[in-house]
Amino acid sequence: MKATAYDPLTAGPLTISYGRRRILDGVTVGPLPPGSITALLGSNGSGKSTLLGALAGLKASDGAISLGDIALGTLALPERARYCAYMPQTLPPPIRMQTLETVLVAMRTDHSSRRSNHIAHALKILSDLGIASLAHRYLDELSGGQRQLAGLAQALARSPRVLLLDEPLSALDLRHQFEVMDVLRGETASRGMITVIVLHDLGVALRRADQAMLLADGHVVSAGPVSEVVTPEHLRRAFGVEARIEISSDGRPMLLVDGVA
Amino acid sequence: MDGDSDDVTNASCFPKASPGTSISDASRPAAPSPDIETALGAYRSLQRRRIVVLLTLLALLGVTFVINLALGPARLGVDDIFRALLGQGDAGAQTIIWRLRLPYAVMAVLTGLALGLAGAEMQTILDNPLASPFTLGLSAAAAFGASLAIILDWRLPFPFLSGEGAVAANAFLFAIGASLALDAVARLRGSASNTVVMFGIALVFTFQACVALLQFVASEDALQDLIFWTMGSVTRATWPKIGALLLACAIVSPFSLRSAWALTALRLGEDRAASMGVDVRRVRLASLMRISILAAIAVAFSGTIGFVGLVAPHIARRLVGEDHRAYLPTAALSGCLIMSGATIAARNLVPGQVLPVGIVTALVGIPFFLGVVLRRPAT
Question: Which one of A77, B145, B265, B278 has the minimum C-beta count within 10 Å?
């Protein structure tokens, strides 16, 4: 069984409860095609992060998760780690390790025979993310945003088929947010990755994602192409806000929020 | 077969996203991006530096070990020592070396190794820089076990052991019990390592209260024995004890080193490690078992020696960073070195008397600790 670049990611229906509280209730995902970015949207506590964790195999769920013919849900963690890379919302802790080292640890590659290949690979990722100059600095000397970029490099360096990112932009300044999204677009397309990103910024989702899933209270409000998901009607239901989608002067959609519904 | 290794080999040939997408690191505009040769060189020199640190610590340990053998009321030269070690020369010198100084010196090194390694793993799996066998109640539990034997003559599980053996056995049982309790809490609460730390602190206070209670009802002689025990000492070293501790270290440390990658991954964050394929629960439990064995045996034989398990990991982190392939051995060696130095001080600070080593570990370790930890990080 071998994942090809054409295998889509499908999951569900997934139901996850903590105690008596249902976090996810029969959520189905996909099929998400390779080379696409899917934004997971929704208000706080809507189940976005839980869904992402379930896709990563970190949360026990009852539904099937598969990548083409491969039943990801039944794979042991080390096996599964070969297909999925997950970046949690929490920033990488400020530990006493150099950025490059942590990327190598994430790649779990230390066969000295191919060390220079691995270092070249890690360095390439770091320079794509614009942090090659931080390669030999310790994480405990970096800012939160720089550590977030280092965490992203750790996930990307594993060359996953499925890249799962929980709010990868939360600690980044405006410029880096857009630059990271551009890098993700490029890498997703060139590697044929299936990228799923939890996003708070609907504007970024509108402009940079292909598809979206909008969650509210553990249910899917809407899923599909991003322009069909992010609509005034759906936003009212998911966030309780009055919003408009206008076409900006460059011809792209933009979101205007007028107030609480 | 589409694993990481395949992807990694042809990594350098996948196309760059697009020429314009690279992020300029706005915060450090002048820093040039290292090319692959520079990066490889820097990585190699980092590894080399770690080996140099380890060798330096080893050399220092050798020096303190010989000083430990040389210093004492009976003046012995280095040549006397080596002759005695080889079983030649003066019979008196041989007795002094083999019966007194060598057991102390070896016991000190092994105790330091066990506590240093246990503390290093503990701080990693509990993700807390204050974790150590001492701060999380293993030592306090051992002290309570010892006090039961010393004061109440309670030696139920091992009726055939007498005196000191019963004290050590009791201490060991209680230390293992405390770590099993920590382990149970870790299992119940899953990943919440803060809960484990809180529970450990609760254990410290509980057992300290119990010991105080026993001290209150103890006879004067028993009280003196207990206080001496709790101060920690390697003068109780005997070759069978050394054998047991050596065996524990020899069995446990290879497993520690084998988990080095998983433990390093754990430092990157628990969820991150899990998504890299680390079975976090299993790694944590296995590590806790190793910690229990090392710390319980060390504490049972040498009493409560608090400082080493807490400080050795911090020294190691500063010296070599947190790649556990280097961090674990460095923490173990730092532990050895502190204990070895402390033993020298304990045996020579007051002429004609051997101070309890637990008193001097902190005094000897503090300058070392401050020197390493308070030093401004090199940038």
Answer: A77
Decide if the complex's ipTM is over 0.90: no
Residues from chain B contacting residue A97 (CB–CB below 8 Å):
264, 267, 321-323
Cβ of residue A228 closer than 8 Å to a chain B Cβ? no
A106:B265 CB<8 A: yes
Cβ pairs A/B, distance under 8 A: 195
Helix H or strand E segment including B99: none
CA distance B300 to B307: 16
Q: Is B164 on the interface with A (CB under 8 A)?
A: no
Using the Cβ of A106 and the Cβ atoms of chain B, whether some distance falls under 8 Å is answered with yes
Q: Does the pLDDT of residue B100 top 70, yes or no?
A: yes
- Please confirm whether the linkage preceding A13 is cis (ω < 30° from 0): yes
Give the closest of A93, A133, A183 to B31, CB-based: A133
Q: Give the pLDDT confidence of A171-182 residue by residue, as tens digits.
A: 888 888 888 999
Between CA A74 and CA B11 the distance in angstroms is 28
Spell out the residues 6+ positions from residue B75 whose beta carbon is closer than 8 angstroms to its own. Answer: none
Q: Counting every residue, how long is chain B? A: 379
Range with the poorest average pLDDT among B18-27, B65-74, B167-176, B260-269: B18-27
- Residue A35 near residue A193 (C-beta atoms within 8 A): yes
Using CB atoms, pick whichever of B20, B36, B379 lies closest to residue A120.
B36
Q: Please determine, for residue A240, whether its predicted confidence score (pLDDT) is greater than 90.
A: no
Q: How confident is the model at residue A155 (pLDDT cuts 50, 70, 90)?
A: very high
Give residue A212's identity as a one-letter amino acid code: A
Mutate to test the interface with A, among B8, B266, B282 (most CBs of A within 10 A): B8
Least Cα distance to B359 among B370, B371, B343, B375 occurs for B343
User: How is residue B13 annotated by DSSP?
Assistant: G
Give B180-220 pLDDT, tens digit per residue. Answer: 888 788 777 665 667 888 888 899 999 999 988 988 888 88
DSSP string covering A79-146, please? HHTTTEEEE-SSPPP--SSBHHHHHHHHHT---GGGHHHHHHHHHHHHHHTT-GGGTTSBGGGS-HHH
- Comparing alpha-carbon positions, the chain A residue that sits nearest to B315 is A96
* A 186-225 near B (Cβ less than 8 A): 186-187, 189-191
Taking a C-beta distance cutoff of 8 angstroms, is the pair B155, B169 a contact?
yes
